[in-house]
Amino acid sequence: MKAAIALWIALLVAPTLAAAQVELSFYGGVQSAPASDISIRGDSAISNDAFSLDWEGRSFDAPPYYGLRATQWRSPTFGIGVDFAHNKVYPVADSLPDVYEVLEFTDGLNTLTVNAYRRWNDVVGNVTPYVGGGVGISMPHVEVTANGSETFGYQLTGPAATWIAGASLPISDSMSVFGEYKGTFSSNTADLAGGGTLETDIITNAVNLGVSFNF
């Protein structure tokens, strides 16, 4: 799944690589998520259920939280691109109902979005603030174990959106570093092994540090 995502990003970006102002970015940071409502319906092994679950990100536990981004700056101030984020959510200790052995999206709550960006060059010295946002898809690794039934694997579960605000600083002609806030929203309907569905809308919040390479 991750190899296919990387290939798709490469195919999207390849036609623009010969143009100026193409930027490849890699980032990590501290990511969290507020509580979300969980709904389980129509499963042969798990009874219909609805509850709220408190999440935590554990950003540095393997596999860590990370992201990569490809942007083409079509003018000095406007860019478009794709962003893949490997978000994660674990239940906070003791918040998971007893019937569930596992319910998490830790490898990860992946989002792939097509974004637009606006930047303001060299506002303070060489510092360039920017904002961005976009929409796309959610592709989590769904892990649910309860009553002898196990769901374990990647799924395409619904739409996603992202919003970003940050600032970058060049350290050479071809490289810059950046810091940013990044939020995501995903509306997920996952298929369970017993024929039912799990539905949940999840928001993540992250503070990122990253590096960009300019071509």
Walk me through the structure.
- The protein is mostly beta strands and 215 residues long.
- The protein has one domain: Porin.
- Helix content is 6%, strand content 64%.
- It has 1 helix and 13 strands, in the order H-E-E-E-E-E-E-E-E-E-E-E-E-E.
- It has one helix at residues 2-13; strands spanning 22-32, 36-41, 49-53, 55-56, 66-73, 78-91, 100-119, 128-138, 141-146, 149-154, 158-170, 175-191, 197-214.
- An 8-stranded antiparallel barrel has the order 1-5-6-7-8-11-12-13.
- The protein starts with a helix and ends with a strand.
- The mean pLDDT is 93.
- This is Lipid A oxidase.
- Keywords: Signal.
Q: How many DSSP helices?
A: 1
Please write the string of helix (H) and strand (E) elements.
HEEEEEEEEEEEEE
How many domains? 1
Tell me the number of strands: 13
How many angstroms does the end-to-end distance come to?
28 Å
Q: Which CATH architecture?
A: Beta Barrel
Radius of gyration: 19 Å
- Percent of residues in helices comes to under 10%
Keywords: Signal
Protein name: Lipid A oxidase
Organism: Yoonia litorea
InterPro entries: OMP/PagP_B-barrel (IPR011250)
